[in-house]
Design a protein that fits this description.
Elements (H helix, E strand, L loop, with lengths): L5 E7 L16 E2 L2 E2 H11 L4 E6 L3 H8 L5 E4 L6 H6 L9 E6 L7 H14 L3 E7 L8 E5 L2 E6 L13 E10 H7 L17 H7 L4 E5 L2 H4 L5 H21 L3 E2 L6 E2 L4 E2 L4 E2 L4 E3 L3 E2 L4 E2 L4 E3 L2 E2 L4 E2 L4 E3 L2 E2 L4 E2 L3 E3 L4 E2 L4 E13 L4 E13 L4 E2 L4 E3 L10 E3 L4 E2 L4 E3 L2 E3 L4 E2 L4 E2 L8 E2 L14 H18 L4
The chain binds uridine-diphosphate-N-acetylglucosamine and calcium ion (CA).
Length: about 475
């Protein structure tokens, strides 16, 4: 079917009191993305021409988050009901069909909206209400029908015990012709239990005006609104599981999908294995045949094929080339590139480093603002002193095949050539040429008979105790 033009009004002025949080409800993230952003993205993908969002509580903050998405923000000064919220959206300036929905229903997808649009076009109606059948409809407005046709929506608070038995409910998602909206909106009164202007009154008003009203059924997920922290967590779990399923269908092995946290924009190549507790965030891209072991965290990472990321590693905004092995307990900070076949071991932190292929930093090391060549060996405990008292960062350059002994400090800016050798325990402050050997540590002094007699007696007493316990002289 041909793409139909439509505008959107998103109702999002409510405070969300039950969240018990100072953050406006619609900014709470569902699987890493604010719920309002999810709704906006879905209507955009469905082809919305113009999106107006009605804000109230926390308006300045919400505006900051969503205006960059290309929506128009409007303010409803006091929350007098859903019809009053729609009024705040300046309906007079709308044309064509209008989709009205809630900002706190984050599971709606493009295909759900397309279905509603198609149904609305086919039915040639003036107003369409999206409905769903619920086992336990609680506070949802009930769909009252006569001879199969919708007659009204009755709010739970205004409903008789008979009406409350109805399982078909209003999702709060409508498609309406803008002319109908302009004409009927001013006629809505607040004569109800809550003294609110109910948008749901559009149904009975349309029928009174001999307009055609229809319903469109949707999936349960579309009707799912978030009102509490518990519902927020359930919603995130739903999205994480949905994402994990997509990756499994594309050939990734996910050992425990209910305990794996993959955000929407992540991509994973076939035959890669994701262990439990892994968090894959942002635009992270993982190649084929990779292994990401348990509890590792990757944000905006590019990981080439065949990489192994061992348990408990924290990686951000960096690139890891093929067959490199990272971790366990590694930390890769932004703007780092790890070359092919390189090895980054436990308790190694890298920030803004170009780490050459086949190079190794196996243990307890900090490298910041560094160019490390190929096949370089960085000994245990190596540190680049990149941050000076002037609060500026300085660079360390180490050439190909250089061997850095353990416990070395490079006081940047400093350059070490290719095939050089740095003695263990050195503090390198000056340039080392290609093939150079540098040693920069104080000489060892060994003195005879220097330990006082008393201390020696104590030491030998201790040795005797040990001998008693072990029962054998070492
Ligand atoms: C509304 C419907 C109900 C439906 C339910 C689905 C009415 C009268 N009732 O219930 O039939 O089953 O949605 O979720 O419309 N909002 C504003 N300004 C206001 C009031 C609400 O912006 O003055 C926004 C809220 O932020 C929320 C949405 O409108 O995003 C729905 O409001 P909410 O109070 O959650 O729904 P109900 O009125 O209880
Ligand atoms: Ca309400």
């Amino acid at each position: 079917m041909e793409q139909q033009k439509f505008s959107v009004i998103i109702l999002a002025a409510g405070k969300g009191t039950r969240m018990k949080s100072s953050l406006p409800k619609i900014l709470h993230p569902v699987a890493g993305k604010p719920m309002i952003t999810r709704v906006i993205e879905s209507v955009k993908q469905a082809g919305a021409e113009e999106i107006r969002v009605v804000l109230g509580y926390g308006e300045p903050l919400v505006r900051k988050v969503i205006e960059p998405l290309g929506v128009t923000c409007l303010k409803q000064t006091s929350q007098l009901g859903t019809a009053d919220a729609v009024k705040a959206a300046n309906v007079e300036t709308l044309s064509g069909n209008v989709l009205i929905l809630n900002g706190d229903h984050p599971l709606i997808l493009k295909q759900d909206i397309k279905l509603m649009l198609d149904n609305f076009a086919d039915s040639e109606s003036d107003l369409q209400v999206t409905t769903v059948n619920m086992k336990n409809p609680k506070q949802f407005g009930r769909i009252v029908r006569h001879k199969g046709d919708i007659r009204a929506i009755v709010e739970a608070k205004d409903a008789s015990s008979e009406t409350l038995k109805i399982h078909e409910v209003n999702t709060g998602i409508y498609l309406v012709k803008s002319d109908v909206l302009k004409e009927l909106l001013p006629k809505i009164k607040n004569h109800n239990t809550q003294k609110e202007y109910y948008l749901t009154d559009l149904v009975s008003l349309s029928l009174e005006n001999h307009l055609k009203v229809c319903t469109s059924a949707c999936k349960m997920s579309v009707a799912y609104g978030v009102n509490s922290q518990v519902e927020l967590a359930k919603t995130s779990q739903y999205v994480f599981k949905r994402n994990a399923k997509t990756h499994m269908e594309n050939g990734a092995t996910i050992i425990d999908p209910s305990n794996t946290y993959i955000e929407d924009d992540v991509k994973i190549g076939e035959s890669s294995v994701i262990f439990p507790g892994v968090f894959l965030r942002g635009s992270t891209l993982i190649g084929k045949y990779c292994v990401v072991e348990q509890n590792s965290f990757l944000n905006n990472m590019i990981v080439y094929d065949g990489v192994i990321i061992k348990t408990m590693s924290h990686l951000e905004s960096s690139i890891i080339k093929s067959k490199a092995v990272i971790g366990p307990f590694a930390r890769i900070r932004p703007e780092t590139i790890i070359g092919e076949d390189a090895r980054i071991g436990n308790f190694v932190e890298l920030k803004k480093v170009n780490f050459g292929s086949k190079s190794k930093a196996g243990h307890l090391t900090y490298l910041g603002d560094a160019e490390i060549g190929e096949e370089v060996n960085i000994g245990c405990g190596t540190i680049t002193c990149n941050y000076d008292v002037d609060k500026k960062k300085y660079k360390t350059v180490i050439g190909d095949r250089t061997f850095v002994g353990s416990d070395t400090q490079f006081v940047a800016p400093v350059t070490v050539g290719e095939d050089a050798l740095i003695a263990s325990g050195s503090t390198i402050t000056k340039e080392v040429p290609d093939g150079g050997f540098a040693i920069a540590r104080s000489r060892q002094i060994t003195k005879q008979g220097y330990v006082p007699t008393k201390l020696r007696e104590q030491t030998s007493a201790l040795q005797n105790v040990e001998t008693d316990v072990v029962g054998d002289k070492v």
